Amino acid sequence: ATNIPPHNLGELIDAIIEQIDNPEATLEDLMKHVKGPDFPTGGIVYGGAPMLQAYATGRGSVMVRAIADIEETKKGRHQIVVTEIPYGINKASLVEKIAELYKEKKINISDLRDESSRGKVRIVIELKKDAYPKKVLNQLFKMTSLQTSFNYNMLALIDGIQPRILGLQEMLSEFIKHRQSVVRRRTEFELKKAKE
Fold first, then answer.
1. How far apart are CA 137 and CA 82, in angstroms?
2. Contact, 123 vs 113, CB < 8 A?
3. What's the pTM value of the predicted model, to 2 decimals?
4. Residue 196 and residue 194: Cα distance in Å, rounded?
């Protein structure tokens, strides 16, 4: 049931150093380093109070939105170009859903193309002449998975036996304790070998 989002390793290391140097560090101190999750598919995370709650309690939900730009074509029409999609969203299903909305005449578009290649996402949605680009984009956010929520459930096994939901501070503390144990056991092993 664990659902811990991926994070930027550099940010986490900085937060761990902060917690080692200052054991009294607050959640706000740690969040100066850990800005939020770092999803490999990109997108924008709308954090604020829900993210603060997720890091404080280990449970919460944040909104993740695709990155979409409105561009003008050479013919003077508008198109919406999606370059990053929310984490865990299947691109093919997303394109299929947009096509379905078009067939049901729920959105005012004239063409839909998936121009993605070599791991780079590019979904082009051409709008009809009389369409309002911002309105269509908002409809897409509302009716498709271009906007979704990520639910935090930071459940971890403590000492390999006890499942517990941990906030960011406890998670980092447990990791620090684990690293201390690993380094001590390795050193004791090497010392024993050297003595032998």
1. 10
2. yes
3. 0.79
4. 5
